Amino acid sequence: MSLTPVAITALDLRLHSGSWSFAEAEKLRITEHWRKLADANPRIWNGDVLICAGAKVADTVLTGRFIKTDYASFVAWRDWGWPDKSVSNVFGSAIVHTADNALLYGRMASHTLNAGKIYPPGGSLEMKDVSVDGRVDVMGSLIRELAEETGLKAADAERAELLAVFDGPRLSVAQVFRFAQPADMLAEAVRHYLRSGHEDELSDIEIVRASSQFDSTMPAYAVAIARYLTADRA
Question: Does the keyword Hydrolase belong to this entry (predicted)?
């Protein structure tokens, strides 16, 4: 799949009232699906997350309406092939772009539901990402996830491109952070952080330099971002 990131300049993402019709209609099946997943992996977590309807880019502004649901419903929707086409999974991605034109992606730990997958630091949007006026703060979410997952601080980098990457039912809001250090130095700092036990969502950090590294462990949106930002765009 070949995707093209879209440059955006602003976000207008807001929480709306109401419930997700898919989650309501499939409540019993979702409960059973989650029970089986939790039996197999007791460390997985269920809680409130946000799902988006009507996400689109117009005049370089990304807009979307969010509703609250739970992670179990989201996972069932994903595992069953994204049956509700009216919504999308919108999430933030923190793109670590190094001084030697590489990217740092995280490899997900074995106890997560995305075990072995490789993609930029980020995570599901939650109610704590909603401000008092109903705005959904994707930027705050991805900056927090960058720090929690890798120990790297957005304040230590130059904030560069803001991209929207439409990948079927997934939409990555990708903020590029340009760090002054080379990839090997930053990767070692992240590995030291991971060894210190601060966060165990990642098992390792991967340095992405070329298309030869792209395989099934890397989602299409993550591949698209890497092609767009690195020298290897073949």
Answer: yes
